[in-house]
Amino acid sequence: MNTFIANYPALFAAFCGLGAMMALAFCVWLVSLAKHDASIVDSVWSVLIYLGGAVYVLVLPETGPRTFWVMLLGALWALRLAGYITWRNWGEPEDRRYVEIRARNQPNYERKSLYLVFEMQAVLAWIVSMALLGAVAGKSAWTWLDSLGASIVLFGLIFETVGDAQLATFKGNQDNRGKVMDKGLWYYTRHPNYFGEFCVWWGFFLMALSAGAWWAIVSPLLMSQLLLKVSGVTLLEKDISERRPAYRDYILRTNAFFPGPPKKS
Q1: Considering the entire predicted model, what is its pTM?
Q2: What is the 3-state secondary structure (H, E, C) of the chain?
Q3: Closest Cα partner for 87 from 168, 175, 195, 157?
Q4: Could you give the CA distance from residue 230 to residue 124 in angstroms, rounded to a whole number?
Q5: Is residue 261 in some structural domain?
Q6: In-domain check, residue 185
Q7: Count of structural domains within the chain
Q8: Residue 187 C-beta-side C-alpha neighbours within 13 Å
Q9: Residue 70's domain spans which residues?
């Protein structure tokens, strides 16, 4: 065992991170049983990823020059996202996505949700966290690629924070009930929060790439797939035009993901 740890410290750290993330997911699952609400997993999604990063730093015998900035930017990202989702969902019933999952997997959904929702989220979070592992494990000197990556992470963090704040302000105004948010960043993209997430994880990958961890590309590729095709844009807009007819016009004139000027009608 000691020989394995000495020869493959990054691989050992990766498995330790996975164990910690699955343990946290199990604990959150227990809370979900008491609350009868599996959607609380959304509040810990970013915490799961950052937990992996923290374990990597603790377990690796030595980390590289990027560690401070990776962990600082990662903490800002994780705390902001976890805090925002918790605040947004506080006092609300279980998210309709999880209500549908619950209905599809009866009977014994409570037991099934451990692996269908919580442990699956832990595994996905672990794959995303590979960018953090690659960045902190590399010993090579800081380069311009690190500066570019860190700048993109910070840009994405600011972009999604501003987008979420604009949407919260819009929804907080009773005069906007039934209307579509198409101001601020939402004028240029229908999903500034998802585009910000996209930037964050491609930025972290650039830092990992600078450290020599080309394999960490699994992180932004998976996150991009989730944002564009799985739990992000595609899922959110699957039936939104039926529930909110005004959204149809918004779709026709506004870019779905990458920001840009509105389309001419």
Answers
A1: 0.93
A2: CHHHHHHCHHHHHHHHHHHHHHHHHHHHHHHHHHHCCHHHHHHHHHHHHHHHHHHHHHHCCCCCCCHHHHHHHHHHHHHHHHHHHHHHHCCCCCCHHHHHHHHHCCCCHHHHHHHHHHHHHHHHHHHHCHHHHHHHHCCCCCCHHHHHHHHHHHHHHHHHHHHHHHHHHHHHCHHHCCCCCCCHHHHCCCCHHHHHHHHHHHHHHHHHHHCCCHHHHHHHHHHHHHHHHHCCHHHHCCCHHHHCCHHHHHHHHCCCCCCCCCCCC
A3: 168
A4: 12
A5: no
A6: yes
A7: 1
A8: 5
A9: 2-253
Q: Which amino acid is at 243?
A: R
Between 218-225 and 119-128, two packed helices, what is the crossing angle to 10 degrees?
130
Residue 259: inside a domain: no
Per residue of the chain (265 residues), give pLDDT as tens: 555 455 578 899 999 999 999 999 999 999 999 999 999 999 999 999 999 999 999 999 999 999 999 999 999 999 999 999 999 999 889 888 899 889 999 999 999 999 999 999 999 999 999 999 999 999 999 999 999 999 999 999 999 999 999 999 999 899 888 888 989 999 999 999 999 999 999 999 999 999 999 999 999 999 999 998 887 677 676 766 566 777 888 888 898 899 999 877 5
- Please report where in the chains the tokens 């330790």 appear, as a residue: 16
Structure tokens at 110: 């409570």
Q: Which two tokens stand for residue 87?
A: 């605040």
